[in-house]
Structures are given as C-alpha cells and as structure tokens.
Amino acid sequence: MTDTDLLHLLRDCYTPNTQRNIVDANLVRSATLTPDPHAPNLGSTAIPGVPRRYLARITLHAPNSDETANAQLAAQIENRLLGLPTISRVELTLLPPLFSIL
Description:
Elements: H1 3-10, E1 28-35, E2 54-61, H2 67-82, E3 87-95
Parallel strand pairs: 2-3
Antiparallel strand pairs: 1-2
C-alpha cells in the first residue's frame, strides 16, 4: 500500500452536500501512510503471511461549517479506511473550510 493508493481510496468518500468526492473537490491537503508501531508484524515480530499494518494520517479542509456534516464525513473516511486489513488506525485532522459561509 502506498500514499497514492490511499488517495485512490479517499475517492470513495463524498462531501455530504455536494456529493463530490473529497479528492476531486480539492479538500485533501495531505494523505500519508506510516507503519503503525503499535500493530503486530513490525520489525523482529514479523509473522509470515500477515500483512504490515499502517497508520493513515489525513489532513483535509472541512467542506463547510456544519459540524454534523463534518462529523459524518470524518466517520465515512474512518469507516472506509478501517475496513482494510492493512490499515490499523486513522488520524484525521479537519481544517477550517476554505470559504466559510455565514
């Protein structure tokens, strides 16, 4: 699994109001994978046949100022990624919306 694969997976996550995926909507600022130091199968404890587990760190701009919609988007992202056997944890940072609407 690579950072590019992670971005591809995030294309399955859509903003609540516009129904555009978060990658095409340019909301993703960074998406990286690092080996999870707390997961099994790292370094000398490697188990043959068990995939390495990763920590996904994602930073994105919130699509709007609606806290409920932003919480739903965060849950959607976490559910999508944690459904994979290679991702053990997700750290999601939501930045303020690019254009705040009052």
